[in-house]
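Blackboard transcription, Thursday session:
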Amino acid sequence: MDFDLSDEQKMLKRTVRDFAEKEIKPTRAEFDEKAEYPIEILRRLGDMGIMGMAIPPEYGGSGADVISYAIAVEELSKIDPSVAVAVSVHNSLGCDPIVKFGTEEQKKKWLPGLASGKKIGCFCLTEPDAGSDAAAVKGTARLDGDEYIINARKQFITNAAGADLSLVFVMTDKEKGYKGISGFLVPTDAPGFSRGKKEKKMGIHASVTMEMNYEDCRIPKENLLGEEGDGFKIALWALDAGRIGVAAQAVGIAQGALNEAVAYSKERIQFGKPISSFQAIQWMIADMATEIDAARFLVYRAAYVKDKGGRFSKEAAMAKLKASDVAVNVSRDAVQIFGGYGYMREYPVERYYRDAKITEIYEGTSEIQRMVISRALLR
Amino acid sequence: MNILVCMKQVPDTAIAIRLDAEQKSIDRSEITYVVNPFDEYAIEAGLQLKEKYGGEVTLVTMGPDRADEALRTGLAMGADKGVHISDPALEGSDTLVTAKVLAAAIKGLPYDIVLCGKVATDDNTGQVGPALAELLGIPHISGATTLEVDDDAKKATATREVEGGFMRMEVPIPAVITAEKDLNAPRYPSLPGIMKAKTKPVDKKDVASLGMDPSSVGLAGSKIQPMGMSLPPVREAGRIIEGEAEEAAKELARLLRAEVKIL
Ligand SMILES: Cc1cc2nc3c(=O)[nH]c(=O)nc-3n(C[C@H](O)[C@H](O)[C@H](O)COP(=O)(O)OP(=O)(O)OC[C@H]3O[C@@H](n4cnc5c(N)ncnc54)[C@H](O)[C@@H]3O)c2cc1C
Ligand SMILES: Cc1cc2nc3c(=O)[nH]c(=O)nc-3n(C[C@H](O)[C@H](O)[C@H](O)COP(=O)(O)OP(=O)(O)OC[C@H]3O[C@@H](n4cnc5c(N)ncnc54)[C@H](O)[C@@H]3O)c2cc1C
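(Written on the board underneath:)
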């Protein structure tokens, strides 16, 4: 067993860290305050091969391993969790399903643009009445000659603001329940598509979340991903992989918050000493660091199993369950170490705390992760 | 166009430096290393010249085994190959010896231009580039903030910052140009670049293969011998003067006069 990253993974980690420190950190508070989608940063990450990490080189991607993906997402998240989730959703939910389930024509048509970051992808499953129970989607698609006509109202969609392509899950056959769900590649310039309201959120403000509406939206029938009825399978596969990304995002949030807390605790003087000299603070920091390592190893393990081609649903769910819990706890403790300053927007830990909570919710709530894990154990 | 870039691996400036027990060198045990930031501008300039004129960018470094990591970073940015001069005998080389070693390696290579950083952020002499030009018998421009190369007319034009303004200079090529930080915005290595970097050729050289005598390099061959190193004095904690602005200003003036004695 080898706990060392490869030379390439180490260089990637340094490179993404460097980019995040120099290019994202100076403006992250402003993007958060204005709830502005960081499209220019995503384009630049595209130039660096970070927007098509798992896409094979013949379609313009980097052809990288899953551990590298987790490393990149963590490093981005340490500085800005909003950028991290935009990258994670684009890669895992926007690109990878096309790599895995797309036809040769679909891959040639969509992947090069997505890999370069000049086109952004998003994933549209959730509806007002279908969240955890994704099989309850009400949106529909029906074949009309050579075209499908889609009617759906999708909500809480990450990357909606910048998306050029949406992967939409709707019913093609209601009689069949979840086996009647199909996935479609719908470009956002298709007739009948429109963006809805922009949500006001607790955190990850710069990851603009919107409604996406499809009203008699027409697309060529070639845009069906896989076969009719494959949609639910595709969505679950994508979410399993996406959970590794969200877990890596959560580890990044926790690590970013810890780094701030460690630095601050050495500078802040109370009772004539740096607060880092108080055992209460030392123990908090020790626990934070230990929890983060535990979470990170679960993320790497899930990524490792996926890289090896094994079943990784349980491992990904465990990684996300643990890492999101750690993100919330560690960012809360980081605020505590900052005291009153930690509650102020001027200091970065307030944002980490707000940003952390979402990792327990999207791409399957913590309750859903526990269902996935226990099902694998009780099978 | 054959472009050579001399690059040095240096301690990351974000890391706090400690001295070793003898106070003659820095303690390298906990240091992380990076490409000398000025050399990143040199590499970027090289890559831009290659994009314009074609050809190859070759990186040259002298340094211990770990300097391979710096070379790979440059290769990941897009350079084509590397030359790594590494030999225990080189330890303790002064700037002139460093330049002689680099010149010995470069003489065997085809080149139209040699790019260096203006200065290495660790030892901070800025001597290697100019010394190298002298040893190669070619002109040099140091601290270039702009660079245009005309491969047909075989000349290079660069801007340097001088007191109160700018100076434009032209030299025939081949020439050595050292890069100032405004020269360009160095690209970040791309992920495909990182994955390719390992397979790019790096030519390993030692003192013998450069045809040099071991006694002419390293500490033995150097005219300058380091006497000692010291850290800057620790800054004392600042003091905040409380109270109303007027009172506080008076107190400040008093302190500047009575204690700091600068008024
Ligand atoms: C910022 C943000 C971005 C998002 N991005 C996307 C996106 O890009 N694409 C997309 O399709 N969706 C996206 N979502 C939607 C997200 O995946 C859902 O919000 C999430 O799956 C939960 O669904 P829900 O909100 O309907 O909650 P509900 O399903 O209504 O859950 C409410 C509560 O009940 C619990 N619960 C539900 N069922 C069970 C059960 N069987 N047993 C135990 N407890 C249960 C849940 O865990 C939760 O605590 C996003 C959401 C947010 C907030
Ligand atoms: C272990 C150790 C021991 C040393 N001992 C001595 C000593 O005994 N006496 C002494 O005088 N100095 C010593 N030095 C300093 C060493 O000689 C200088 O680092 C070297 O000469 C370069 O000088 P500089 O760093 O000031 O580079 P600068 O002249 O500031 O660098 C300018 C540019 O020259 C190029 N360049 C510089 N160095 C290299 C290199 N190694 N490979 C490729 N390109 C390069 C780069 O393009 C760089 O941007 C020692 C250094 C080390 C690491």
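Lecturer's comment: The pocket of flavin-adenine dinucleotide (ligand 1) is lined by residues A 89, 122-126, 131-132, 156-158, 201, 209, 358, 361-365, 367-368 (CB under 6 Å).
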